[in-house]
Structure formats: C-alpha cells, structure tokens
Amino acid sequence: MNVSGHGPAYERGDPWFEDGNIVLLTDPTGVAFKVHRGVLARHSEIFQSMFQLPPPTQTDVEMLDGCQVVRMYDVPAELSSLIKALYDGAMFHNRSADDFFEVAGVLRLSTKYFIAHLRAQAIKHLSQTWAYTLRGHDQMLELAITAPAVGGMSYPYIHPLHVLNLARETNVRIVVPSALYFLSLYPLRDILEGNHPKLKVEHPSRPSSQLSAEDIKDYTLLFQHRIDLIMTFVRTDCGWRSASANCKNDEGVCAKAFARLSSKLSRAWQTRTGPLHFMVQAMDELAGDSMVCTPCRRSFREDVYAAREKIWKELPGLIGLPSWEDLKAADLTSSNKPIS
Predict the structure, then answer these.
(1) Coil/strand/helix, residue 233
(2) Tally of CA atoms within 13 A in the half-sphere of 325 that contains its CB
(3) What is the pLDDT along the chain (340 residues), one digit of tens a residue?
(4) How far is 280 from 283, CA to CA, in rounded Å?
(5) Which of 113, 118, 148, 214 maximizes the CB count within 10 A of its CB?
(6) Edge-to-edge, what's the strand order for the sheet holding 11-12?
(7) Strands 22-26 and 67-72
(8) Whole-structure pTM over 0.85, yes or no?
(9) SS3 sequence of 274-335
(10) Count of alpha carbons within 13 Å of 236, Cβ hemisphere only?
C-alpha cells in the first residue's frame, strides 16, 4: 500500500502499465490500475466521458504516479478482468466455478460500461452451457453425467440459481429458460434454505443465492410443467401407444411391449427427473426390447424426437419470454438491444 502522502493510499493491481496515462482506483478497496486512457475510451463511450481531462485551473484533481485518478466503484477482480479483456481479448473457460465468476464479472461491467462486443462474447459463452438449442442442452447433460467433479463440484460447477440471478441482473434472457428448467429439478425448500454446496461458495463475483418472488412463480410453473410432461409421456405416449401401421409382429405384441415400457417408466421417474433426458432413456430402454419390431421402434423414436423438439421450442413461452429466435437475435448480436 502507498501511504507516503503523495496521493491516495492504494494497492497496485493487475494490469499496471508503466507507460499508462490514467489510474483507475477502486473505492473503497483502494486497488489501482494504471492504464491507457485511449484504449479504454475507444471501447466505451462511458469511459470516454469519465476520462475527460479536467480544466487546467482545477486544483482538486487526484493524482497518482503522475496520472489523473478516476475512482471506480467496482469489484477489483471484475475490473481487472474487464481491462485484460479489452487489451488482450476475452478468453473464457468452463473448468471450475471460478471460470463462471470471471465471466460474470466481465458481463456485469461490459453491461455497465456499454461495451457491446465483450457483453456479446460473455453471453455467447454462457449460452454454450445454458443452451438455447436442444442439442446444446443434451451436450450439457452428457457432460454433467460424465465429467469429473472439480473441487467437489459436479459439472457445470455452478448452481442454476446463480446463472438465473446473473441473467436477471444483466438483462440477459437467452439463458433464463435453461437455467429455470434445471432449477426446477431442485425442491423449492432446498432452494429457499440455500444449503446446497454450490450456493454457499464464497466469491466477490458470486450472484445472489436468493430466489426472487417473481422467479418463484416461474420456477413453480416449470416444476409443474415438468411433472405434467413426464406423466403424459409415461401414461399416454407409452402406455396407450398402439403398434405402427407397418408393424411386423403379431397383433398385440408391440402394444404390450409399450405397456411394459410404461409400467417400468412409471416406477423409475422421480420429482427431480428431467423429461427431456427421461425421454431419451425411454428410447434406449425400448431399443433393448427384442420383442419390439423395427418399424414400431423407429416410429416411437421419431415421435419422441418430435415431442422433445416441441417441448424445447415452447420452453421460453411458458415463462413469458419471446421465441428462441427472438432471444438469440437480441442477446447474441453486438448491439445487444433489450427486447420487450
């Protein structure tokens, strides 16, 4: 810390460029970043306004290391990540919870300072895990099942409530349906108590671990919808299913196989079961039944594929959001203009 009296007390942060011409000083934490006014102003009109040189007669301007000081009311780690991304380009990862928190910090500050290209990059990175496509959803689930734990946390290493609250905080809606879908797999009591290890991780960039009143409503809608989808699939799509028109078996053989599948599924699902993955498991289960003919197996697979696509397409509308196409156009473009 500098306590010499020649300017405010500070701790040198990273980055610190010796040839910089302005110092960003976090308040009240006192972490300083010596940077180049032109580099930051080039990317943000907000920075450009903040960095205007004071009139020559002004005597109360703070100076540090020969440079004008601009006080910043941001988390030092987030400001550090933002500056590095502006200089070096953003490089986001998904190897641990810390990687998510870094993305969260850049997303917050790129939103605050109107840095559209960094905001778009951060959103794109988040949407690769909290997907807007069914294929992306399936890939995320596959990793959740197969990827090793890191620091005792399973993939994707972060609680969906933190993703949801970050999205609300930064007006990013394309990840909200996926985050709420996965959040609906958790019992409401567990969410409200906040005892899950992922909710108790300490980090300065961690979003809130509280579920808002508005999101309790959306959570409840998705929780009930998820249960309804499972029950309909088990009872109707499987239990009442008839043989296909091209069935190669004797009458009733394949229909009985579907009834057996329905019975098995009805005993297998739980309140935390996700219908989209459950339907894939049902296809795998039927594929292992040698009593079912190839046409009936193929017809079932095609119907399940179509049903999953329909469920995914309708997901945003269930919680009052526009279509996936509109969300993508709004959140994954460089302008990032909010949609109504």
Answers:
(1) helix
(2) 1
(3) 554 456 788 999 999 999 999 999 999 999 999 999 999 999 999 999 988 866 655 667 889 999 999 999 999 999 999 999 999 999 999 999 999 999 999 999 999 999 999 999 999 999 999 999 999 999 999 999 999 999 999 999 999 999 999 999 999 999 999 999 999 999 999 999 999 999 999 999 999 999 999 999 999 999 999 999 999 999 999 999 999 999 999 999 999 999 999 999 999 999 999 999 999 999 999 999 999 999 999 999 999 999 999 999 999 999 999 999 999 999 997 555 444 3
(4) 5
(5) 118
(6) 11-12, 31-35, 22-26, 67-72, 63-64
(7) parallel
(8) yes
(9) CHHHHHHHHHHHHHCCCCCCHHHHHHHHHHHHHHHHHHHHHHHHHCCCCCHHHHHHHHCCCC
(10) 9
CB-CB contact of 166 with 207 (8 Å):
yes
- Taking a C-beta distance cutoff of 8 angstroms, is the pair 1, 9 a contact? yes
Give Cα 173 to chain centroid, integer Å.
10
What is the Cα–Cα distance from 67 to 204, expressed in whole angstroms? Answer: 28
For the chain, state the CA radius of gyration: 26
Instruction: Give the ranges where the chain is alpha helix by DSSP (H).
Output: 37-43, 45-50, 76-88, 97-112, 116-129, 134-146, 160-170, 176-183, 188-193, 213-232, 253-268, 275-287, 294-318, 324-331
CA distance 185 to 272: 5
Selection from 93, 154, 169 nearest residue 125 by Cα = 93
Cβ atoms of 103 and 90 closer than 8 Å: no
